[in-house]
Amino acid sequence: MQSEITSSPATLPTLTYDKSITFYLGEETIEVRHIPFVHTSGDSLVIFKKADVIQTGDMYFQGFYPFIDVQFGGSIDNMIRFYDELYAMAGPDTKIIPGHGPIANRDDVRVYQGMLKTVRNRVAIAIAKGTSVADLKAAKPLADLDPEWGDNLITADWLLDMVYADLVKNGEDND
Hints:
Layout: E1 20-25, E2 28-35, E3 43-48, E4 53-61, H1 76-89, E5 95-100, H2 106-128, H3 133-138, H4 146-149, H5 156-170
Helix pairs in contact: 1-2, 2-5
């Protein structure tokens, strides 16, 4: 059972922004960008320009399956597109700090994006064939990916639930 998320004045932010905000700390320029509808509807990306570091929050789980919060706006298609943006903004020496997992680089981003495209494609094909989510999970369509990506918090069945719900909600041909 999922609990209701509520807010109170004590939990509301005191500093907000629509698209981005920039901070300066000594010689470091820190840009925070709102990246909607990837992990949730309210994700932010933090770029430390001089240090050449990008912190992605939960939009990127390096080394294992992601959590896509479909109920709160997360989307596998937006996540896949976001990795194109992340790759483009990262240079060859950029350190990418994921929300979970080890520090990554832009080549890691492409590998991760490839895994997500594979998962998305397999779920979209199943939906187009009329396969239920229960039958999809029983077929173990991610068994070949599990040794590399499935040994952590998010299981293959949980990822299939999320991607299936997302593609049913937003359309499996919307890539």
